[in-house]
Specification:
The protein has helices at 3-14, 18-21, 32-43; strands at 28-31, 46-52, 58-63, 69-74, 79-86. With 101 residues, it is an alpha+beta fold. It is flat and about 45 Å long.
Length: 101
């Protein structure tokens, strides 16, 4: 699996929504549901972690049983953009919850 190929495929799939996203022209953006459907269908990826950024964006990590992963960010206007993708995702055991007092 070559991730530049994935980015090109996603760009072609989501390009009509790029103007609404108000992000860099190089970004791959579109509707969140389409990202989830495409990544689930073609890579077996599903959301495994998420959080809200200080600017109100939702950051999600999608992972597969094969170890592939993608990070997307959904903007308050509803448009999601792919941040990065890769291989060899591993879950780590949480060792501590923070400083002990």
């Amino acid at each position: 699996m070559r991730y530049p190929l994935l980015a090109a495929a996603l760009a072609a799939f989501f390009m009509p929504n790029l103007a609404q996203a108000q992000v860099s022209p190089a970004a791959v953006c579109g509707e969140r549901g389409k990202f989830l459907a495409h990544l689930g269908r073609s890579h077996g990826e599903a959301p495994s972690a998420m959080g809200v950024t200080a600017t109100g964006r939702v950051l999600e990590v999608l992972t597969s049983a094969k170890g592939t992963w993608t990070i997307i960010v959904t903007h308050p206007n509803g448009i999601s953009c792919m941040v990065t993708a890769g291989q060899a995702w591993e879950y780590l055991e949480r060792i501590t919850e923070g400083p002990t007092t």
